[in-house]
Write a structure and sequence with these properties.
10-stranded mixed beta sheet; alpha/beta; Rossmann fold; Type VII secretion protein EssC; 3-stranded antiparallel beta sheet; 13 helices; 21% strand; 370 residues
Length: 370
């Protein structure tokens, strides 16, 4: 039998994806050795430069459709290439010599917009007519990830799982398991990002009130709306005026193993300042190591970066996972970022996730606004 593998939009493979090297290796092996075994590869790309040279040299037949850069056509089919024509489906191929070809179009249309409209109708018609077996859908992060949409990715939730969102590359739900002696840090780029993303995390926090006492230490004063939904709510006035008593209460809480508690510190930098905590005391809060106590901290990334350098190191050493927003150039958690990745724009609903030395992007669910 003959096996034909079709790969559309090869250049859609992100260079940031750690799997790309393996994928390219498999494609190269298929191009080089596949034909002798009856295995063939057909793939498309929008840019010649996105295809590795060792792969190009192993492609026996290359078809060039209209490309804006004529030099790309020359590099693909050689100096004897024909003058390209901007006609849908018109291209050229080199067999014994360059030849113009016209590829059949699936639908008619006077321009690109008309062709696309007719193609969508044709696809819809084919889908309705098909009643055979269908392959499973390829998981993809939707353009708008709502709470309801995310729940469709997690039909059965795990016990003590605190869901972060969807991995941007794999579309796999990512979570943080609570009450395992580990701390989670969430640092948003701006107040706007905090207001957009925090409701997703806070609704999960309050969802654990039947299993644990929820303690909110609201130094930033932005979680007042949930004061009546938790066991203990400490506002910033109490923190300022009763800092000695609060520090003693926190010390006692860290030592206690009687009750299961989920503690949220909203405004970590100001929290350490108000209570005059030194590095060792901050580390004790962050690295509590108790299964009965879960600590989650929130703060603004700018405030974190504005602290003394050892504070960031302290966070990295005493947190199991760190989520942070913004471009990679404006953070201190990860070093040695390649120059071409430092200023890549990051959508407001996406946070970087640092777990040990692994960096990924997580798409956070957001509420639907009426």
């Amino acid at each position: 039998p003959i096996v034909v593998t079709v790969l559309d939009s090869y250049d859609g493979l992100s260079t940031d994806d750690t799997r790309k090297e393996k994928i390219d290796g498999l494609l190269l092996q298929l191009l080089r050795d596949g034909a002798s075994l009856g295995c063939y590869l057909i793939f498309t790309a929008n840019r010649v430069g996105s295809v590795r040279m060792n792969m190009l040299s192993n492609i026996s037949t290359k078809i060039a459709l209209y490309l804006n850069d004529e030099t790309e056509i020359t590099s693909l089919v050689g100096r004897a290439s024909l003058v390209p024509q901007s006609i849908n489906g018109r291209g050229q191929v080199v067999l014994d010599e360059p030849a113009a070809i016209q590829i059949y179009l699936p639908v008619a249309g006077e321009n690109n917009a008309a062709i696309l409209e007719h193609l969508e109708k044709e696809v819809s018609s084919m889908e309705q007519a098909w009643n055979g077996v269908r392959p499973e859908k390829i998981p993809m992060v939707p353009s708008e990830l709502t709470y309801e949409t995310f729940n469709g990715f997690v039909p059965k939730k795990e016990r003590d799982a605190f869901y972060l969102g969807l991995n941007k590359l794999s579309s796999i739900p990512e979570s943080f398991h609570l009450f395992q002696g580990k701390t989670l840090g969430i640092f948003t780029e701006s107040n706007r990002q905090f207001q957009l993303l925090t409701p997703w995390f806070i609704q999960q926090v309050t969802g654990f009130q039947s299993e644990a006492d929820i303690v909110i230490i609201d130094v930033s004063g932005t979680l007042e709306k949930i004061a009546d939904k938790v066991a203990v709510y400490i506002d910033r006035t109490q923190i300022s005026h009763q800092n000695v008593e609060l520090k003693e209460a926190i010390d006692a809480m860290l030592e206690s193993n009687v009750k299961k508690r989920l503690v949220v510190v909203n405004g970590l930098v100001n929290f350490t300042d108000k209570l005059s905590l030194d590095a060792e005391e901050v580390a004790q809060v962050l690295a509590n190591g108790k299964e009965q106590l879960q600590v989650i901290v929130f703060d603004n990334l700018t405030k974190i970066d504005a602290t003394y350098g050892s504070f960031v190191t302290l966070l990295k050493e005493n947190k199991s996972q760190i989520l942070f927003g913004g471009i990679l150039q404006k953070q201190s958690f990860v070093g040695n970022i390649p120059y071409n990745q430092q200023n890549l724009p990051v959508p407001i609903n996406v946070l970087h996730r640092l777990e040990e030395d692994s960096l990924a992007q997580i798409v956070i669910p957001t509420e639907v606004k009426d």
